[in-house]
Amino acid sequence: MAATNHAQAIKKDSQTYLTTALLQLLRTHDLDTITVTQVVKRAGVSRMAFYRNFSTLAELLTAYFAPAIAARFQDVLQHVPAEQKLVAMGQFFSDFAPTLQLAAQRGFESIIQQLFDDNMTTFYQTTMAEAGLTAVQLNYWTKFMSAGVYAIWREWLLNGQTESLTTIHDLLATLQNSTMEALVKAAKEA
Question: Which residues bind DNA (predicted)?
Answer without folding.
Answer: 35-54
